[in-house]
Design brief:
alpha/beta; Gyrase A, domain 2; Four Helix Bundle (Hemerythrin (Met), subunit A); Rossmann fold; 7-stranded mixed beta sheet; 6-stranded mixed beta sheet; 13 strands; about 15% strand; flat; binds zinc ion; GTP-binding; EC 3.6.-.-; GTP binding; metal-binding
Length: about 450
């Protein structure tokens, strides 16, 4: 337990009419009481209750704010410490004034992520759950949010703990075998260890398979809209943004940038790349040059390539087909309201099996089919985001890879008939690596580094 009391503004600055100053620590209630005037002192109210009152500033000798104050006593709070939340009505000015008063009464300004860090240190959540809080704050789509919430609820932790339990049993079995070689036949132990190692390796592999989709859910599918000038790129961008506006969630106390370039197509998050280019000069090749636009293309996960139904395929079109060879792409023949001069067979040849959709963005036709095509690219596997334990955190992915390697090493030395304590070392290492995911075996410096990435007030 850390003993000082921390405070910070925990609502998005400048957003909404209400802002919250949050305090946590042994003195949270006493410090709040020193500036609060209500029907009763907060020290006398029940836990998990909310109270109307005023904030009094001694220096100017008057009430400066009207507030609603929530009091939550340890241990049933997010940090497991006493927590007070002061809801201020006014905007930034008033919340800053309240925070300043609180700090002048002995609270310390919280470091980024310190509330969550305390929740972790006090055993309220494990490390993967704490990281989920961070992911939630950054999540750009509903599905990414679901993944983070699942993790926050401890889904990944439970799975990892189950695997660690199995590893512990294996370790125990080997210990017995080393101490009492007569206890059972070595052969039996070997078979048992191989079987259990295989199960563990399978489970880790399954988790790793979800990680690619996890990353996509977290960051969005990097999508580039390309095509010759005037073919309809801006129109497509506008209709995608218009129909699938970026999501704003209202988890209390989280800040979210609303980035228009994130759109959510049937639950699939698209991060539209270089849309500024489309808006400003109408042509990314012209704006950033051929070399860089090739790089933008290279980094895209998905290309939306527009063609003009009203004209035959041009040299430029064929050049673009060349540039996106082998990439994930959807070919869109736009302007179907105009007379057709494009050779469909030729387009299909160049498409090389990738979906070809026809649209009239002007008449808002074909957009459904386009969205369908985007969604089916993502759901090829038929997996729905909510059903699975997804791994999307880079640190977790890297640890899972190491764990897979370690358990593989263990299997190898068992199969090669090396002394059993060799395998034991690798089994133990697997157990330790998995422990780092949930924070059982991590160093203090890693913890500091992880939590310092949080936003202030979380
Ligand atoms: P960009 O240069 O590729 O970004 O193309 P724009 O989206 O700016 O569109 C160029 C012109 O084509 C505009 O005048 C649009 O209104 C028009 N346009 C876009 N889609 C269609 C369509 O489906 N049919 C017709 N007839 N015109 C369209
Ligand atoms: Zn345009």
């Amino acid at each position: 337990m850390e003993h000082d009391t921390i405070a910070a503004i925990s609502t998005p600055i400048g957003e909404g009419a209400i802002a919250i100053v949050r305090l946590s620590g042994e003195q949270a209630i006493a410090i709040a009481d020193s500036v609060y005037r209500g029907r009763k002192p907060l020290a006398e109210v029940g836990s998990h209750t909310i109270h109307y009152g005023k904030i009094y500033d001694e220096e100017v000798e008057r009430d400066v704010e009207e507030v609603m104050v929530s009091v939550m006593r340890t241990p049933k709070t997010f940090t497991r410490e006493d927590v007070v939340e002061i809801n201020c009505h006014g905007g930034l000015m008033s919340v800053n004034r309240v925070l300043e008063l609180i700090l002048s009464k002995g609270a310390r300004l919280a470091e980024p992520g310190e509330f969550t860090k305390r929740a972790f240190l006090n055993g309220r959540i494990d490390l993967s759950q704490a990281e989920a809080v961070m992911d939630m704050i950054r999540a750009k789509t509903d599905k990414a949010m679901n993944v983070a919430m699942g993790q926050m609820e401890g889904r990944l932790s439970q799975l990892v703990q189950k695997l660690r339990q199995m590893l512990l049993e294996m370790i125990a079995h080997v210990e017995v075998n080393i101490d009492y070689p007569e206890y059972d036949a070595e052969e039996v132990t070997h078979q048992l260890l191989i079987k259990q190692s295989e199960t563990i390796k399978d489970e880790i592999e399954k988790l790793l398979i979800t990680s690619k989709q996890g990353k996509i859910l977290r960051e969005g599918i990097a999508t580039a809209i390309i095509g010759r000038p005037n073919v309809g790129k801006s129109s497509l961008l506008n209709s995608l943004v218009h129909e699938n506006k970026a999501i704003v969630t209202d988890i209390p106390g989280t800040t979210r940038d609303i980035i228009e370039e994130y759109v959510n197509v049937r639950g699939v998050p698209l991060q539209l790349v270089d849309t500024a280019g489309i808006r400003e000069t109408e042509d990314i090749v012209e704006r950033i040059g051929v070399e860089r636009s090739r790089k933008v293309l290279k980094e895209a996960d998905l290309i939306l390539f527009l063609l003009n139904n009203n004209e035959p395929l041009s040299v430029e079109d064929k050049g673009l087909f060349d540039a996106i060879k082998g990439m994930n792409a959807i070919i869109i023949i736009n302007k179907t309201d105009l007379e057709s001069h494009i050779d469909l067979d030729e387009v299909n040849t160049y498409a090389e099996g990738r979906p070809v959709i026809t649209t009239s963005l002007l008449k808002e036709e074909g957009i459904d089919q386009l969205e369908e095509a985007i969604a089916s690219l993502f759901y090829e596997t038929g997996i729905e985001a909510n059903d699975l334990t997804y791994v999307s955190n880079v640190r977790h992915i890297s640890l899972l890879k190491q764990a897979k390697q370690a358990i593989g090493d263990a299997m190898l030395s068992i199969e090669e008939g090396l002394p059993i304590d060799m395998a034991q070392i690798d089994i133990r290492r697997t157990w330790e690596i998995l422990g780092e995911i949930v924070g059982d075996t991590v160093s203090d410096s890693l913890i500091d580094q992880l939590f310092s990435q949080f936003c202030l007030g979380k």
